[in-house]
Amino acid sequence: MGIDIDDIKNVYHYAPTGTLADYVQEIGRAARQLDEGYAIMDYLVGKDMRYARTLWGLGGIKQFQVKEIANVLYKTYRKKNKRKLLISPESFSHIFDTSEIDAKVKSGLMLLTNDLLSKFHFKAVTIKPRAMYTSQYISIPESIKAEFINRYGKYISRLKHVNKTRKETSFGSAADVKITLMGEIYEINL
Question: Domain of life, per the record (predicted)?
């Protein structure tokens, strides 16, 4: 969706979205930094009921599918013997049709996570989207470097052998470009 605004108080839908995962992601934009927020839905009885059935039916997730998701997570945990796991949606391909696997796995994991949270009163399963597992790089200007490292040093590592100035050769009639870094480059460990 691309919107990252902290003080949204109301999220208003004229009709529910296609999947539970999409709907929860969209209403999650309300009250990120506020004490209270509202997700409001407005639809017509009859014509728009098919949208409500889609949402409330959770995209067709069955109880046995949620149990099988839990089983895959448990087997992977036992095999790897680690708390933090990176599991591809394709690991669940025996449970869901491959054309809609991402949405179904998201919905199933969300249901499982919320069920475990209500049962055990702590987050037994934490889900992060794929984008969270990419490498992130930042350039820290000298003027804030000490303060930044003091505050976030445990999450970053400095890249070695990074040229502060380099020349990029252009093709065709374009002139060569000189690139100068504004500060040292660090990799962020999310």
Answer: Eukaryota
